[in-house]
Design goal:
The protein has 337 residues and is of the alpha/beta class. The protein has twelve helices and 15 strands. The protein is globular.
Amino acid sequence: MHYCIETHNLTKRYPLITGYGGLFMHPFRKKETTAIRNVNIQIKKGELFGLLGSNGAGKTTLIKILCTLVLPSAGSAFVNGLEVTRDEKKIRKIIGYVVSNERSFYWRLTGRQNLTFFAKLNNIPRHEARVRIEHLLSFMELTRDANRMFKDYSTGMRQKLAIARGLLTDPEIIFMDEPTNGLDPVSAQKLRKLVKEKFVEEEKKTVIFATHNLHEAEELCDRIAIIHNGEVKVAGIVGDIKREFNSEKGYVIELKRPETDLLERIYRIAHVKKVVKTKDGSLPDTIQIEIKTETREGHEDVFQIIKEIVDMGGKICSFYEKEISLREMFSRVVEKK
C-alpha cells in the first residue's frame, strides 16, 4: 500500500545549550536532548489521523519535520512519496500548516492584508490570490471582519484566520497542531465539525490533527498514534487499541430493590472479578452496579452471570457493556513499560 505519509525510525536531536562554565570546562563535549526517537507511522490518503500526546511529547517536532521546517537527525520521512530532506519545495506546494500560535501574523495589518501577504510568499498569482482569499474569508465566516486589524480579533477569529492561511494553497494534506487550543467550547466544536465534515468527508483531504485533548481525539479520529517522551507508544484504530489495553470487560447493571446481601452474593459468582455500586439508578428504587469480568471471546461469561443474578431474585431493569475511555487507555499506554 502507498501511504500518504510514512516515516522510518525518524529521530530528532537538539543540542543542549550549556552555560559559559560548561563551555569553558568541556569545550568539545556535545550534549543533546532527543525530541523524537525512532518514530514509525503510516497515514493513509484521505484519513483524519490523530497525533495524541501531552505537551512536550514530540508532536510539534514530528509535524515540523513532515512540513520540511526542521531536518531530522536520523531516519527518513515521506510525504506523498516525496522525501522531506530532498523534495522540500515540492512538499510545501501540497501541504498546509495550521498552528494555534498567532505570533506569525502581523498585528497591525487587517485579516485580508495578512492573507494577501502570505499569498505572495506562496507565489500565488495576484488575481487568483484575490479570488481565493475572498472565498476563504467567506468560508471561515470572516468577511465582515476582514478589514479589521488582526490585533482586534478575538481568539476564535485568529484561529479561523490561521486555518484560512493554511488553506491558501488548496493543499492536499493539512497539518493542524492543536488548532482548538484557547478556543471556547462552542468555537472548538464548530472547528472540529468543519475539519471532519468539510475537509475530510467532503473535500477528501488528508488531515493530521495533533492534540492533547483526549475527548477531541476520540470524537474526530478513527486512527491515532500516542506519543510519549518522543516515542510512539502505540498506533492504530482507536477501538483496537482499547481492546489491546483493556484486560477486563465492564458491565453496568441496573437492579430494582436489591436485597441487602445481593451484591455480596453477586461477587461470589464465578468469573466476576469486581462489583461496585456506582450510583442510584435512573428509575425509582433502583441502583446501578458495575461488574468486571475477565476478557474472553464472546459474552458467555456475562450471560451466565445475568442468569445467576436472576436466579438469586435480582430484578434487572437495564444492562450494557461499559467501554474503556480514551483517557483511561491513554494512562495505561504511557504507564506501560
